[in-house]
Amino acid sequence: MSMSLPTETQILVVGAGPNGMACAITLKALGLQVTIVDALSRDRYESRSSLVYPRTLEELDTVGLAQPLLDNGISSKGVTFHGDTDTLIAVDVSKLYKLTRFPTTLLISQSDVESIFEDRLKREGVNVIWKVVCMASNLNNRILFCPLLRPARGGPEPGAPPTSYWRTAMVVPIGTTTPQHPSLEYIQAEVAKRNPWKQRLHVVKTTQAATYRVRSAVASTFFEKLGTGNILLVGDAAHVHRSLKNYIVL
Length: 250
What we know:
- By secondary structure, the protein is an alpha/beta fold.
- It has helices spanning 18-29, 54-61, 66-72, 110-123, 184-194; strands spanning 11-14, 34-38, 51-52, 74-76, 78-83, 86-92, 105-107, 129-130, 144-145, 169-172, 210-214, 223-226, 229-232, 245-249.
- The strands form 5 sheets. A 4-stranded parallel beta sheet has the order 8-2-1-9, with helices on one face. Strands 3-7-4 form a 3-stranded antiparallel beta sheet.
- α1 runs parallel beside α4 (110-123).
- The longest helix has 14 residues, at 110-123.
- The protein is globular and about 65 Å long.
């Protein structure tokens, strides 16, 4: 059953991704009246974000959100980026132990992050109103705008964890038909075609996989006054992607 929109609100958050919900939780903790809406339904499925870094954990800890993520994710000492057969860069955040309470790179699916944040909002008396498109011509209250971030499903498997996890992005040409939820067989075939090593790579299991399109774009402005209200743009819309391609992300 869909919820109705309130007749007025102090702050409207548009977009119930991690950024939007984290903003709503923070603003609610400051004693402000918050309404949060999203144009999509709750059961959307895409894999985009999967890593949380120390600085983000520090900010989330100010509103009590860091520990729930740590309890549900996989902590590692860092992350290594590879290009073809070469190691591009290795980042060891465990060396920051004197500078932060969270010297870790946290692997956690975006759907898990959003579920944790949404549960917190519900406990604060705030419910996300799904399938609502926001269009404003005159704002008489303060408005906070956060773009959509779409979640992925998955997470750590039970049992002993492996020594490392791999997150692979495979670019396919525009116009290529790709499944929204790639199967293990499809992924294995793509890996076999692209494998830069002599040894055969065998994909045994994936924790999350999805296909989505990215584009090279960035907002021309991140803050604007509209009527007597303010619009602040944060989140995925601030990102500049490197190419206009389809990605399969594992």
